Amino acid sequence: MRFSLIHIVPETTKVPFIKGRFVAMLFSAVLMIASIGAFATMGLNLGIDFVGGTLIEIETQEDANLTEIRESLNGLGFGEVQVQTFGAANDVLIKMRQQEPENPEVEMAAERAQQQAANTVQETLVEMLPGVEFRRVEVVGPAVSGELVRAGILAVGLALGAMLIYIWFRFEWQFSLGAVIALTHDVIATMGMFAVTQFEFNLASIAAILTIVGYSMNDTVVVYDRIRENLRKFKRMPLAELLNLSINQTLSRTLITSITTLIALFALFFLGGAVLRGFSFAMIWGVLIGTYSSIFVASPLLLLTGVKRGTSEQDS
Amino acid sequence: MLYFARWKVTLILAVLVIGLLYALPNALPENVRQSWPGFLPDKTMNLGLDLRGGSHLLFEVDIDAVREERMEALVDDAKQVLREDPLIPHRVTVQNGAVEVRILGDGDMEEVADRLEDLARPVSGILVPGQANPRSVSIEQVDDTTFRMVQTEDALEKLSRDIVQQSIEVIRKRIDEYGTTEPNIQRQGDNRILVQVPGLDDPERLKELIGQTAQMTFHLVYSDNPGDLTSAMQGRVPPGARLVPSDEAGQPDILVRRRAVLSGEDLKNAYQGSHPQTGAPVVNFSFNLSGAKIFGDITTDNVGRRFAIVLDDKVITAPRINSPITGGSGYIEGNFTIESATDLATLLNAGALPAPLTVVEERTVGAGLGADSIKAGEFAAVVGFLAVVVFVLIAYGVFGVFANIALFANVMLIAGVLSMLQATLTLPGIAGIILTIGMAVDANVLIFERIREESRAGRSPVNSVETGYTRALSTILDANITTLIAAVLLFQFGSGPVRGFAVTLGIGILTSVFTAFVLSRLIASLWLRMARPKTLPI
Known about the structure:
The structure holds two protein chains of two kinds.
Chain A: H1 21-41, E1 45-46, H2 48-51, E2 53-59, H3 66-74, E3 81-86, E4 88-97, H4 109-128, E5 133-140, H5 142-170, H6 173-197, E6 200-201, H7 203-233, H8 239-271, H9 277-305
Parallel strand pairs in A: 1-6
Antiparallel strand pairs in A: 2-4, 2-5, 3-4
Helix pairs in contact in A: 1-6, 5-6, 5-7, 6-7, 6-9, 7-8, 7-9, 8-9
Chain B: H1 6-23, H2 30-34, E1 46-47, H3 49-52, E2 54-61, H4 63-83, E3 90-95, E4 98-103, H5 109-117, E5 137-141, E6 146-151, H6 153-178, E7 184-188, E8 192-198, H7 203-211, E9 216-220, H8 226-233, E10 241-244, E11 254-257, E12 262-263, E13 267-274, E14 281-287, H9 289-301, E15 307-311, E16 314-317, E17 329-332, H10 338-350, E18 357-365, H11 367-421, E19 424-425, H12 427-456, H13 461-493, H14 497-531
Parallel strand pairs in B: 1-19
Antiparallel strand pairs in B: 2-8, 2-18, 3-4, 4-6, 5-6, 7-8, 9-12, 9-15, 10-11, 13-14, 14-17, 15-16
Helix pairs in contact in B: 1-11, 6-10, 11-12, 11-14, 12-13, 12-14, 13-14
């Protein structure tokens, strides 16, 4: 069976990636500043996993009258209640913030207030909308949400630390530093994306960030592996040229893997249902930014830190 | 690298066949699985609550409440021993979490120390030879007239452990009586209990059933005199009495005797019934032997007075004793529906919780959403899989076929491993599988790109393939180990559904290294031997 294969990338490319590093650096700097700025000014739209609160998804018999639902729920005195459709016109998502208890010094008062508010809202909905179906009810109290925040930050921090150590072990500290700077770049850019789009940031978002870290690391390792190999092979080639050669040699693989991953993610984004949409969007963004960073951030950084050429040879 | 010993081929095939056997039940209808020979695996994947519908409830046990109770009991005990003959004048107070015993006048301090010492029981009943048994209370003399008593850490720790354990048992009994299948009840951390119940039509009711303390006590009414009641409501509660609100809104509080004559523990059983005259739902109960005796004595001695049945600090009913009740059984009237009377009977049978419980996290998914999620997830997985297959075929031709066989085997193995381990598949878990479909190709891409390069460098087909696989291996391992690190951390720190994602991602990484590296290499070597190509179609 011979048919002409589409070569995604021409057989030998000589794209001057390294020459473009100043443009890339500028772009990354702007991206970082914009992300941190957005994070500082707009903040994240934190989901109930992290701030506590109540989320109720209902399916109504007919298309839902959002204004009516909003008005009657806001009249209950539980603060502002967000009401929006979710996927379909008769699928409604109701979100309520953490309740302030009357006497906060009493043990678990906030949790009880929360439960009570959630119950009242559900009773009101049952009265107002005959035949309503509760598709999902999530109530997270302040104690649990605080723990989830800590666990999330810890998990991302430890992931970065573990990658740093692994790369250090397998390569050298210059590589390890470059890789972790690139990963941090990706994490910041992803947080910035969440701040700008105001997509809900929840437990699934932490999962997305960790997966992005894993994916981007994967990409970076592939390029670094080739750099290490070429360092042994071409002892006299100037470092900039060698980095460029390595990136070009792995370019085809980088792009093809990104494309297959993106294909799967787009299927998930469009067909996987509303619950997974935020997650798949974050992952799509992460694959793009991760691919960019391993070419334009992780590799050029080796020029700055300067790789010693003699010592790489012992590594297998 | 291209030569496979026979045993290796056998091993690879065996892994695939075992994977297939474990994955197969998921693709077969229930009745086929039932008629399956017993030696074949018949378990399907274990679906998470977000896919099958159900409730995930995390309760926190309020251990502080019990600690305070213990503290009060310690105060009472201290007073008791000092009141014994000869009485030692004293004042007992609670100061900064410790009980302070001050001796008034010039009491014999050694005698006091001796008496208090009796309160410091060993923490566990079993004496370990050669080891000091930790004591429940530590006693120290702070000055000439004062002793301080503190509950020891050992005692408090054991108390927490016991309370959580007891609570779990009570919850299990209640859920069993409620009649739900396959509840998962487990301790989480120091003072939390996780309850997971699949497929529920009324999660609210379950929550109330579990969360209610259900501490029932029987008290004689202290006084029906309206004057006493009014002064008690103004804060002048007579010693030995207690003001308890009524369960029914709008009804006045009732002044009962502080000491309970009987409690829920004295009951033999309870069941829902109807009132002999009105037919309204009631809860019938009967006492055990000693309870029946006490109840008989009390009703005999107090004909004409009222007694109150108090549930969780609210009076449910306070009937008048018209004649002695010696049969040891009776019924509780109240504002019941059939459902609430049944629930109360369930609670009384299962026993009271040793400490109050509060819901700190609740995640309930309806069966409808779960089914929709599975459908959407399956559809996305199939479309994603096919799209990747087509793309890989276009990009690598005949080698793309190898990669696709490997990809298919990978998905099969993930399903097989999930079924074998009975790991829980959640919605994020499905996302993990779909992501793995995209990323699993990576190993093959690395290999094929390498083969292309080697072929371009002028190596023979066999040599190119051989070198391609060899050289790509270390890269593949490095790349996958980093992702595996992320998956492990996610599993460690993630909760609930997110853990499901970590599980499928982790399993997917391991199986993909096997299929993309080992299996595809076997296929490639067979193909090279059979086709003997002059040039590589890659």
